[in-house]
Fold Dabb family protein.
Amino acid sequence: MIRHTVFFRLKHPHGSIAEADFLSRAMKLGPAIPDVRNFQCVRQVGKGEYDWGLLMDFVDQEAYDRYNAHPVFEMFVTERWQLEVEAFVELDYMVGDEPGEH
């Protein structure tokens, strides 16, 4: 399984309508794309650089590749992500395999 994580900071002020609208739209990605499992939106509560995170799982690399090519995902990136995200980091991990088996 692949765990895909992306942590980000928006250009919008905290608590703004624009922030809420972006997050609401982001939350629709999970249900809209069949290969996404365990989709979560998380909020930073410590002193990290990024305020928000999206976490999701994929059963394998092919499922992850389908997600990246899915029209709903591509539209979200073009119409929202590229315009409204100030900074981000994306991390992907193999889950469930023993260390050193890759």
Summary: The CA atoms of residues 75 and 86 lie 18 Å apart. The helical segments are 17-27, 29-32, 61-69, 71-84. The chain has one domain: 2-92. The longest strand covers residues 85-94.
